[in-house]
C-alpha cells in the first residue's frame, strides 16, 4: 500500500454503526474495503452489538468508506451510521479490526 506524503490533507472521522451487522462479516469486509480504498484507522464491535471505528484518509477516501459503511456487505442490514470529525494528530498506519 502506498504511503501518503506527510503534507497530504487527512480527514479523521469517528463512526458508529447499528443494525443487523453481526454474523454477516461486516468488520472483515470493512477491513478489505478499507484496504482497497487506502484508508487507515480501525473498526471494533462493542458488547451491545454496535460497531465503532475511526476512518482516516483524504476527504474523498473517507467519503467513499462512509458510503460503503452505510450499506455494508450483502447480508448486512445497516440501520444507522453516525459520524463526526475527530480532531487528532495521530496518523494511523493501516485499517484494522480490533
N-C termini distance: 20 Å
Work out the helix count.
2
DSSP strand count? 5
Strand content: 35-45%
- The SSE string, one letter per element, is EHEEHEE
Structural class, by secondary structure, is: alpha+beta
Largest sheet: 5 strands, mixed
Q: Strands of the largest sheet, in order across it?
A: 4-1-3-2-5
Q: Return the CATH class.
A: Alpha Beta
Uncertain parts: none
Number of folding domains?
1
Could you estimate the helical fraction of the residues in percent? 25-40%
CATH architecture: 2-Layer Sandwich
Shape: globular
Average residue-wise pLDDT: 92
Radius of gyration: 13 Å
Layout: helices, strands, pairs:
Blueprint: E1 11-20, H1 26-37, E2 40-45, E3 51-57, H2 59-71, E4 77-85, E5 95-97
Parallel strand pairs: 2-5
Antiparallel strand pairs: 1-3, 1-4, 2-3
Pfam families: Acylphosphatase
GO molecular function: acylphosphatase activity
InterPro entries: Acylphosphatase (IPR020456), Acylphosphatase-like_dom (IPR001792), Acylphosphatase-like_dom_sf (IPR036046)
What features would you describe in this structure?
The protein is of the alpha+beta class. About 25% of the residues lie in helices and about 35% in strands. The protein has a five-stranded mixed beta sheet, covered by helices on one side. β2 and β3 form a beta hairpin. α1 runs antiparallel to α2. The longest helix has 13 residues. It is globular, with a radius of gyration of 13 Å. The two termini are about 20 Å apart. The mean pLDDT is about 90.
Brief rundown of the structure:
This protein is 26% helix and 36% strand. It has two helices and five strands.
Amino acid at each position: 500500500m502506498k504511503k501518503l506524503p506527510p503534507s497530504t490533507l487527512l480527514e479523521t472521522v469517528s463512526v458508529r454503526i447499528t443494525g443487523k451487522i453481526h454474523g454477516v462479516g461486516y468488520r472483515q469486509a470493512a477491513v478489505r474495503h478499507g484496504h482497497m480504498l487506502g484508508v487507515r484507522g480501525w473498526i471494533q464491535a462493542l458488547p451491545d452489538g454496535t460497531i465503532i471505528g475511526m476512518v482516516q484518509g483524504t476527504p474523498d477516501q473517507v467519503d467513499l468508506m462512509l458510503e460503503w459503511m452505510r450499506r455494508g456487505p450483502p447480508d448486512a442490514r445497516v440501520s444507522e451510521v453516525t459520524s463526526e470529525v475527530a480532531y487528532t494528530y495521530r496518523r494511523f498506519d493501516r485499517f484494522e479490526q480490533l
